[in-house]
């Protein structure tokens, strides 16, 4: 298991659950100083990033790219993979495709979180799930061409109404053609939706590709009331090898949140 930390480059997402905010250079420097192995970047779009700049920052600080988030597709550009407008669905797929192609050469996956959207407003659940399946089939194939997985993240009920639990998300992924689409399990969402977080992680099993490491209040692990012991035990016993990434509020400030995350990571996983 390797610790990662989030960097947001999206002004419209201020107030959101990301540790570092100011710039890629600053975020990478602080991530390395705290002892993280990797950064998870949340950009405005793939074209807003510079491949060469990122490569040299990662080399300079001996960091990896853990994953790239697509949330700005929704937060900033209002694109959803299940929008009732076919043109918006196409633009949403194109937005994620560019992120997959950007992150692929770094060996990193893109994340589908809030861009999954929701059913309602005249669109039945079945129709939304069909659109989601179509999008994931296409994006999973694109990730395969880049020799990386694609991460799909179940969200809590206040952010989606499609697939909120690992059990239903895993069954859904099993129906798709590409088998490189893995689950991103976010402990904050799971604290709301899962009856038993450790059991849900075990159910994700070999489809668990990434973990968002957040306490009950979306602060660093140890700052809320999630019982982390059985969760850590589940991850260790599954021999989970991927990233444990702090997608958390920068509270009381970014450095204190990063420091608490590393202390918790070492306490539970090393
Ligand atoms: C994205 O990883 C996520 O967890 C959503 O809640 C959007 O912030
Ligand atoms: Mn998350």
Give a written overview of the molecule.
The chain is α/β, with parallel strands linked by helices. It has a single domain (2-269), classed as Divalent-metal-dependent TIM barrel enzymes (TIM Barrel, Alpha-Beta Barrel). The chain is 43% helix and 14% strand. Strands 1-2-3-4-5-6-7-8 form an eight-stranded parallel β-barrel, surrounded by six helices. Helix 1 packs parallel to helix 2 (51-61), helix 4 runs parallel beside helix 5 (125-145) and helix 8 runs parallel beside helix 9 (228-237). The protein is globular and about 45 Å long. It binds L-Erythrulose and manganese (II) ion. Manganese (II) ion is lined by residues 113, 153, 186, 212, 247.
Keywords:
single chain, 270 residues, alpha/beta, TIM Barrel, eight-stranded parallel beta barrel, 8 strands, 14% strand, globular, binds L-Erythrulose, binds manganese (II) ion
Succession of helices and strands: EHEHEHHEHEHEHHEHEH
- Could you report the average pLDDT, rounded to the nearest whole number? 98
Q: Could you tell me which ligands this complex binds, including any ions or cofactors?
A: L-Erythrulose, manganese (II) ion
User: Which architecture name does CATH use?
Assistant: Alpha-Beta Barrel
Helicity range: 40-55%
Tally of domains = 1
Q: Identify the overall geometry.
A: globular
Tell me the total number of β-strands.
8
| N-C termini distance | 9 Å
Strand content: 5-15%
By CATH, the superfamily comes out as Divalent-metal-dependent TIM barrel enzymes
CATH fold type:
TIM Barrel
Strand order of the largest sheet: 1-2-3-4-5-6-7-8
Residue windows where pLDDT falls under 50 for at least 5 positions: none
Class computed from helices, strands and strand pairing: alpha/beta
């Amino acid at each position: 298991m390797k610790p990662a930390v989030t960097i947001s480059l999206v002004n419209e997402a201020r107030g959101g659950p990301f540790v570092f905010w100011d710039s890629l250079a600053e975020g990478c420097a602080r991530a390395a100083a705290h002892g993280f192995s990797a950064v998870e970047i949340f950009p405005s779009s793939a074209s807003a990033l510079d491949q060469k700049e990122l490569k040299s920052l990662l080399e300079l600080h001996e960091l990896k790219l853990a994953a790239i988030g697509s949330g700005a597709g929704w937060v900033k550009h209002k694109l959803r993979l299940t929008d009732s407008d076919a043109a918006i669905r196409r633009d949403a797929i194109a937005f994620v495709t560019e992120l997959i192609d950007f992150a692929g050469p770094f060996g990193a996956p893109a994340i589908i979180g809030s861009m999954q959207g929701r059913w309602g407003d005249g669109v039945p659940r079945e129709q939304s799930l069909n659109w989601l399946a179509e999008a994931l089939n296409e994006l999973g194939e694109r990730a395969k061409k880049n020799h990386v997985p694609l991460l799909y993240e179940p969200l809590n009920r206040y952010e989606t109404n499609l697939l909120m639990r690992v059990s239903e998300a895993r069954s859904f992924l099993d129906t798709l053609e590409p088998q490189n689409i893995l689950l991103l399990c976010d402990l904050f969402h799971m604290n709301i939706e899962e009856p038993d977080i450790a059991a849900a992680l075990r159910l994700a099993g070999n489809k668990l590709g990434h973990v968002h490491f957040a306490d009950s209040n979306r602060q660093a692990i140890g700052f809320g009331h999630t019982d982390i012991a059985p969760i850590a035990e589940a991850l260790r016993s599954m021999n989970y090898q991927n990233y444990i990434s702090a997608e958390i509020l920068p509270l009381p400030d970014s450095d204190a949140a990063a420091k608490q995350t590393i202390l918790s990571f070492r306490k539970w996983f090393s």
